[in-house]
Amino acid sequence: MCGVCAARDGGDMITTERLTKTYGPVTAVDDVSFAVEPGRVVGFLGPNGAGKSTAMRMMTGLTPPTSGRALIAGRPYAELTNPGRLVGVMLDASAQHPGRTGLETLRLVAIHLGVPRSRVEEMLELVGLTADEASRRVRGYSLGMRQRLGLAAAFMGDPQVLILDEPANGLDPQGIHWMRGLLRDFAERGGTVLLSSHLLHEIEAIADELIVIGRGRIIAEGSLDDLLAPTTTFVRSLDDRTLAAALVETGAEVTTTPAGLSVTADAETVGRLALAHGIVLLRLSHGERAGLEELFLTLTTDQDRAGPVARPTGAAA
Ligand code: ADP
Questions:
Q1: Do 200 and 239 have their domain in common?
Q2: pLDDT tens string 257-270
Q3: How wide is the angle at C-alpha 149 spanned by C-alphas 145 and 152, nearest 5°?
Q4: Which terminus of the chain is less hemmed in, N or C, by CB atoms within 10 Å?
Q5: 296 in a domain, yes or no?
Q6: How many whole angstroms from 299 Cα to the centroid of ligand 1?
Q7: 247 lies in a domain?
């Protein structure tokens, strides 16, 4: 499995290069390029219809790109020698066979991957499904249980990479917290995780980095801290005029309001500058985390693809 060795030497584990998919007049994924390094949990965030699933289907060899390419450990998925042992995939938790029990589902995965049968019990324990739950038919599972089962299947081959489409869907806040721990541990051991969500708060709770997609295109990417950092600080002092002038000198934009100053700098910078000028502060607070939340809100309201998607049968490839 030396596709992995190259990546263990420091290469990117998931790469897309100008990845594009069109369905007739619809460009589902539009010129998307990014790289995910080992040790990272990266959130792929975008409203419904943004192109996340289509991109993930191309990464995992289920849909051929119209142009561009997606690589896992430097190779297209279809060229990996033992893909199930390198990449754990969960694309549609509701697609599991409803008539099988959880246990049967996982045993089939184990056989398919050629891993020892004992691994099934280990995976059930990993995802917190009890023996009683595992003996029930999947048709009676809640969405959260299906997600856990899907994760157990994705982890079965002891992969290096996880590609998970909306894995937190159907989980309660405790479940989301649990998933964060699970994925973090995996990443800390050198694993690479790409998980999608249409909910900012889910991604915020789980990922360290973000790729934001809207209408098939990447519109923002970076660390969560950077993308969610407050963009403004609100300050009121005994000498707003002097403080405003000092702030403008540092390159910050300052808006004067009757209640004080709104500044495009972080609170620490503003506080230190006031200290340096001997100005007494009456109030200093973070402004809104305007950037990403506003951007995301605009995307969500503005995107007219949020409704149920009609897919012509047989058009998936
Ligand atoms: P997301 O996963 O972000 O919700 P999708 O990748 O499912 O978004 O969909 C992106 C766009 O591509 C949507 O406009 C959707 O209608 C379209 N699309 C996805 N799959 C198909 C398909 N098999 N045939 C036609 N259009 C599709």
A1: no
A2: 888 898 988 889 99
A3: 140
A4: C
A5: no
A6: 16
A7: yes
